[in-house]
Structure formats: C-alpha cells, structure tokens
Design brief:
By secondary structure, the chain is of the alpha+beta class. The protein contains 12 helices and 17 strands. β1, α1 and β2 form a beta-alpha-beta unit. The structure holds adenosine-5'-triphosphate and magnesium ion.
Length: about 350
C-alpha cells in the first residue's frame, strides 16, 4: 500500500508525511502540477492533497484531478463528497438545505430584478458574501436597503474582484497594531493595490449572482467544529473589535467548557449525512440554537494545536494532544482495505 502525497507549504501534508514516517506507511511525494500526474500515481493506491483556495494553480484543476482519480477507483483525500463544495458558499447553501441542516437563512439570486424585489420587501441588516473567500475576506454587513441595492447593481454589473485591497489593508493594519503581523505584510497590503494576488487574477470578477444571509445578531464569536470520521474537536473564534466577523480574527479560545455538546452531536449527524471525510462547520447562535454559516474541508493546522482534546462518536471526551492528520491517513487506509 502506497500513498501519493502532494507536499505543500502551510498545509496538512507535512503532518501526513510525519505520520507515515512514524508508522512506517509507504508514501511517495507526487507533483500534481505535472501533466503526467496520472502516470506518477500508477504505483500508488491513494492520493492525498490539501489544496488551498488561494493557490492560483490548484484552483484550476484540483477538483477535476481528484474526481478523475476517484472515478477509476483510486482513494483520494479529499474525495468528491468532501470537497466539491469547498470555497463555494452557493453550493453549500443547496447542500445544507438538502440535508435539512440548520443553515442560517440564505438567499441567492441570478436575476437582478428578482434580487431588487426581494430587497424591497426584506428587513435589514443582512450579510452579503461572495461564494468564495476565507478569513471573513468577502463577508460584509449590509445595514440598509440602499446598501443592498448598490451591491445588487454591482453584482449584475462589473462584479467584485475576488480580492479587495482596501479591506485587506485594513485587516493587515488591525493585525499589525495587535502585533500579529509584521511591517512587510503591511507593505505588501499597499503593493496589492497595484498587483493583486495571483489567485485573484485567475478567478477574475465574481458576478451574475448575489448571496445574502440573515444576520444573526449578538454573537461575540463563532464556533468551529471539525469532524474527521468519528472524532470531533472545536475552537471558538472571537469577533474582531467593533465587527461581527470572527473568522481570521486570530483570537481563539479552546477550553472544553466553551462548547455545547448539542453542537458537537449535531456536527457528527451532519457530517454523516454529508458523507465527508473531514469537515469544519462554522456556527453562530440564535439563543441556544446553533446555526451553520458555512462548511469547509480545509483549515490551517496552526489554529488547532492548542485544542485540549476531542470527542468520539459516542460523545466521550478524550483529554490530551491528538493528531487529526494521522486520523485522515488512517481513515483513508481503512477505506482501501474495506473495499479490497
Ligand atoms: N449570517 C451571519 N450572521 C452573523 N455572523 C455571521 C454570519 N455569517 C458569518 N458571520 C460571521 O462572519 C465570519 C465569516 O463568515 P464565513 O465563515 O461565512 O466566511 P469565511 O470568510 O468563508 O470564513 P472562513 O475563514 O471560516 O472560511 C464568521 O466567522 C462569523 O463570525
Ligand atoms: Mg467561516
């Protein structure tokens, strides 16, 4: 049994490789960006590739490659069910509604007049999002009908760049003031007005649709629960100062007592329905009720090192350090053995 692993910076891959080395699992480095990737994988039973939404090359073909391999019976991480909706909040709306998940009420329009009619009748504030983006980058509060109408006109006109340099500079400045980033990063934020990041050039403008969510007020944080197979762990991300957005704030809490077990149970149930290998659910709360705002298969390992333990599928708590990247490898291997 050999696993092909695509090494990538700041991803799961270093940890997969460490786990394989430690447990004597055979693995080969592969280069998915080469035209002969299928040939490279001919001696492998599986491919593991943690691709990012910000990689200008990976977003061109990662899903296509993965689904092709899966079609011919190769095991892959992430597989189709795990990643078809990655970085696609529009896709997630349909998927979460299909499984009757408690999704925050979400509207998507592909017609300008329909969107205008809706904006005339609905109440505000609402939350506007682009279908792609992470760390709250493309998420905005829409306080008034006038603001909504402006956004709708823009969506069905020029559209929105996948990267907003003004917003990004503001965020870099916030992080710099908190000593969470360096001066170089701040300067890069200025340079980005002239030179957008490569992924934004590849994506072009988002247009032709508009996406709104009900604004769930009075949340000082969001809760992210990650389910991998029959194990789950959680973090609580505090919102930025004078802002409703938590993701990317860098202010994360880990204590077990912060997490309501119903939310963990709900996450296990939804993960099973979604048939995913790995999923992060982001929740906000209306009173005691957890509401999903979005899902994602990928996350930055650094944000989770301090998790004090995890729950298993029977809701038993396992105190202490754990290795979710090893779980990904083990689950993939058992899926290979299960089939043969
Ligand atoms: N409908 C909503 N009501 C209230 N707060 C919300 C809502 N949607 C999102 N938020 C807040 O905004 C943040 C960013 O939203 P969301 O998770 O949808 O965007 P993202 O940029 O894709 O985030 P991530 O980095 O987690 O992938 C959330 O962490 C949450 O705090
Ligand atoms: Mg999120």
């Amino acid at each position: 049994m050999i696993i092909g692993i695509q090494p990538s910076k700041d991803s799961f891959s270093d940890r997969w490789i460490d786990y394989c080395e430690k447990t004597h699992i055979h693995w080969n480095p592969v280069n998915c960006y080469k035209s002969n990737i299928i040939e490279q994988l001919s001696g492998c039973d599986a491919l593991m590739w943690h691709f990012s939404q910000n990689s200008p090359k990976a977003i061109l073909f990662a899903k296509q490659l993965i689904y092709s391999l899966e079609t011919c019976g190769k095991k892959v991480f992430p597989n189709f069910h795990t990643c078809w909706h990655f970085d696609d909040k529009v896709g997630q709306k349909y998927l979460l509604e299909t499984i009757s998940a408690p999704l925050v009420s979400t509207w998507v329009f592909y017609n300008k007049n329909e969107a205008f009619e809706w904006a005339e009748k609905t109440g505000f504030p609402k939350v506007f999002k682009l279908r792609s983006g992470a760390s709250s980058q493309n998420v905005r509060l829409v306080k008034t009908r006038q603001q909504a109408i402006k956004l709708i006109s823009k969506s069905f006109g020029h559209g929105f760049p996948a990267y907003d340099p003004a917003d990004s500079l503001k965020e870099r400045w916030r992080l710099y003031r908190l000593d969470k980033t360096n001066f170089r990063d701040l300067l890069e934020g200025v340079a980005r007005f002239a030179i957008p990041p490569p992924y934004a050039k590849v994506r072009g403008h988002e247009r032709g649709y508009i996406y709104f969510q009900e604004f769930i007020a009075d949340n000082d944080s969001d809760v992210r629960v990650i389910v991998i197979g029959d194990k789950a762990f959680a973090i609580k991300r505090m919102v930025r100062e004078n802002d409703f957005r938590a993701s990317g704030s860098g202010n994360i809490l880990y204590d077990r007592s912060l997490f309501d077990e119903n939310t963990i149970r709900l996450s296990f149930t939804m993960a099973r329905k979604l048939k995913v290998q790995c999923v992060a659910f982001d929740f906000v709360y209306q009173g005691n009720q957890p509401l999903v705002v979005e899902i994602s298969y990928g996350f930055s390992p650094a944000g989770y090192f301090s998790c004090p333990g995890y729950w298993d599928g029977e809701m038993n708590w396992h105190e202490g350090k754990f290795d979710p990247y090893g779980w990904m490898v083990e689950n993939l291997i058992s899926s290979i053995q299960y089939k043969t």
